Amino acid sequence: MKLSEGAKLILASASPRRRELMTAAGYRFEVRPADVAEELPEECDEPERETERLAEAKALAVAEKTKEAGRWVLGADTIVVLGRRLIGKPRDDEDAAAILRSLSGSNHAVITGVALIESGSLRRLVRSAVTRIKMRVIPEEEIRRYIAAGGSRGKAGAYGLQEGGDRYVERLGGSASNVVGLPMELVSEMLEEVGFRAGQGK
Q1: Domain containing residue 100: CATH number
Q2: Residue 202 domain-assigned (yes or no)
Q3: Residue 167 lies in a domain
Q4: Residue 2 belongs to some domain of the structure
Q5: 35: in domain
Q6: Cβ neighbours for 37, distance < 8 A, ≥ 6 positions apart
Q7: What is the extent of the structural domain holding 15?
């Protein structure tokens, strides 16, 4: 699949962390957040499909509103999976505390769905990345301090490696940037397939 002439990259996300990861990787892009409800079932046997579905919905929402044809839109969605339970962003501090208690001492997974959709043709690539996490037991007082400091806000699973949550992780298997919000190894591979390389885009 070749990059369409004059194509530009659009990031369909308001996440500052995703913007930082893309910028650090050398990509030039425009930000157009998608207005899509991040609704998830409480439990699921195929969590990768759920993240891919949401990522695709976000990219499609922006691609369909993009008047210029031939622009690639990148959408992503990250969730935490504990057993069959799907965990998104906490509703409030109490929800964040409950989530962190459930993850304390656990083995869980962080999954990000990634979608690339071209405006006009609506051609698409949709994939996902999985990172396995072993978390240490977190005392209640540490949970409270972490939440009070704002580390849980807007984070799938109520923690972020970049917000001090890395001190709770005993073992990480897979992409670390995936846990931050965007698996850059997978994203770079997908972008290269459609013709983008770092330093190209806008």
Answers
A1: 3.90.950.10
A2: no
A3: yes
A4: no
A5: yes
A6: none
A7: 9-193
Query: Active-site residues: which are they?
Result: 77
Q: Are 161 and 176 in contact (CB under 8 A)?
A: yes
Q: What is the largest CA-CA distance in the chain?
A: 56
Q: From CA 83, how far away is CA 54, in angstroms rounded? A: 20
pLDDT digits (tens, 9 = 90+) for 58-76: 999 999 999 999 999 999 9
Q: For residue 43, what is the DSSP state? A: B
- Phi (first) and psi of residue 61, to 5 degrees: -60, -40
| Contacts with 39 (C-beta within 8 Å, 6 or more apart), sequence order | none
Buried b (16+ CB within 10 A) or exposed e, 22-50: beeeebebeebebebeeebeeebeebbeb
Q: Are 79 and 156 in contact (CB under 8 A)?
A: yes
Question: 10 with 66: CB under 8 angstroms?
Answer: yes
Tell me the sheet residues that pair with 133.
108, 172
Structure confidence by residue, pLDDT tens digits, 125-164? 999 999 999 999 999 999 999 999 998 988 889 998 876 6
Q: For strands 85-87 and 72-82, give the pairing.
A: antiparallel
Strands of the chain, DSSP E: 9-11, 30-31, 72-82, 85-87, 107-118, 124-135, 169-173
AA letter at 91: R
| Model confidence, pTM | 0.89
